């Protein structure tokens, strides 16, 4: 049986831990790891349910890399062989010709015993996994794929702000992105309570920070905002109830709720979100937490399109750049509500 997950998760009876990416090669402009940036050579495999994969999807949209790297979307429900391409005709990815993402992992390393995770980038000519380094993929999109960015693409990782961005992202990863999982998959009360406390301590810190500025670092959208958004957009739908992070809902924090709506309504963010995939994955796959497999009917999603008034704080979403165009027709996702 394959272990599978989003962003290299391992969970079960043992204490939850997030494994480092096993295949940490980078796709770079100079190809120093053997994987040069080339238009059309690679395929990005994502689950719309997975927050780690969603980061790659948002970055790809904002930077206009749709023509440079094609997209494969897996079924939100896994089976014993991991992420599967059952949303495609005949259950095969039309470009890679495989039924399971694990096949690309096996081509890279025969008998690889680890988890099959998304996001993953597959080399189309060889069918081999190139990288599953969920922490590095988006940074490389921003800094190594620049020759293929669209005209007007924003700078998501501006060099003068990188130290501050890295500091904020580290805190967000530890206590929020990963913190909700630590709480949700805790098997002991004190373990859960520690994670719970970390989540809301950090959310309070973020709320205070964002009360006086529109974005996390500087006056434009950066990688830090992308990484926080993918957890916030899932918070009320799954983390509040399913993962027991229930001190308060996102909608009950005026600052974070407005900030999340601001990003959701920004081209490249909300148009990549699929709440149906999100809810079905968490509630149907995590049978240890939700043994009945019942998927909640709520929450009401209509609020995501309501006014947020965050523009009053100033800021320029795309800096000197421009919003991305609408997504390609075959990548369109129905809006929430």
Ranges where pLDDT stays below 50 over 5 or more residues in a row are none
Distance between the termini: 38 Å
Strand runs, count: 8
Helix content: 25-40%
Q: What's the total helix number?
A: 9
Biggest sheet details: 4 strands, mixed
Tell me the strand percentage band: 5-15%
Mean pLDDT: 94
Instruction: Tell me the strand order in the biggest sheet.
Output: 5-4-7-8
Element order: H for helix, E for strand: EEEEHEHEEEHHHHHHH
The 3D shape can be described as: globular
Rg, Å, rounded? 19 Å
**Secondary-structure content class:** alpha/beta
Overview in brief:
This protein has helices at 51-63, 102-108, 137-143, 162-177, 179-184, 189-210, 223-239, 254-264, 275-285, and strands at residues 4-6, 9-10, 17-18, 42-46, 70-73, 116-118, 120-123, 128-131.
Describe the structure.
- It is a single chain.
- The strands form 3 sheets. Strands 5-4-7-8 form a 4-stranded mixed beta sheet, sandwiched between helices.
- It is 33% helix and 8% strand.
- It is globular and about 50 Å long.
- Helix 1 crosses helix 7 and helix 4 (162-177) runs parallel beside helix 7 (223-239).
- It contains 9 helices and 8 strands.
- The longest helix is centred in the middle third of the chain and has 22 residues, at 189-210.
- The protein has 337 residues and is an alpha/beta fold.
- The mean pLDDT is 94.
- The protein starts with a strand and ends in a 52-residue tail after the last helix.
- Strand 2 (9-10) and strand 3 (17-18) form a beta hairpin.
């Amino acid at each position: 049986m394959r272990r599978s997950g989003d962003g290299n998760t391992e969970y079960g009876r043992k204490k939850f831990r997030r494994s480092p990416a096993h295949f940490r090669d980078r796709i770079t402009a100079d190809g120093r790891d053997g994987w040069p940036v080339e238009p059309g050579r690679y395929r990005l495999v994502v689950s719309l349910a997975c927050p780690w994969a969603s980061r790659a999807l948002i970055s790809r949209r904002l930077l206009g890399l749709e023509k440079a790297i094609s997209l494969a979307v897996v079924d939100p429900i896994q089976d014993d062989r991991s992420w599967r391409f059952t949303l495609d005709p005949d259950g095969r990815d039309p470009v890679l010709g495989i039924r399971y993402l694990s096949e690309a992992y096996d081509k890279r390393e025969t008998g690889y015993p680890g988890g099959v995770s998304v996001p993953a980038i597959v080399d189309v000519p060889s069918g081999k996994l190139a990288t599953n380094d969920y922490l590095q993929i988006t940074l490389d999109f921003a800094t190594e794929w620049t020759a293929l960015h669209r005209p007007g693409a924003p700078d998501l990782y501006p060099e003068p702000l990188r130290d501050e961005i890295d500091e904020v992202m580290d805190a967000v990863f530890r206590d929020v992105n990963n913190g909700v999982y630590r709480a949700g998959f805790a098997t002991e009360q004190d373990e859960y309570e520690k994670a719970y406390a970390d989540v809301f301590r950090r959310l309070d810190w973020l709320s205070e920070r964002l009360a006086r500025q529109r974005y996390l670092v500087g006056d434009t959208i950066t990688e830090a905002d992308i990484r926080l958004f993918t957890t916030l957009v899932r918070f009320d739908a799954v983390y509040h109830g399913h993962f027991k992070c229930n001190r308060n809902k996102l909608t009950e924090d005026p600052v974070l709720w407005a900030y999340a709506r601001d990003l959701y309504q920004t081209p490249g963010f909300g148009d990549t979100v699929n709440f149906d995939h999100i809810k079905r994955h968490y509630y149907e796959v995590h049978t240890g937490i939700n043994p009945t497999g019942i998927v909640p009917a709520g929450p009401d999603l209509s609020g995501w399109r309501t006014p947020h008034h965050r523009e009053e704080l100033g800021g320029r979403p795309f800096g000197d750049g421009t919003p991305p165009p609408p997504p390609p027709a075959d990548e369109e996702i129905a809006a929430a509500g």
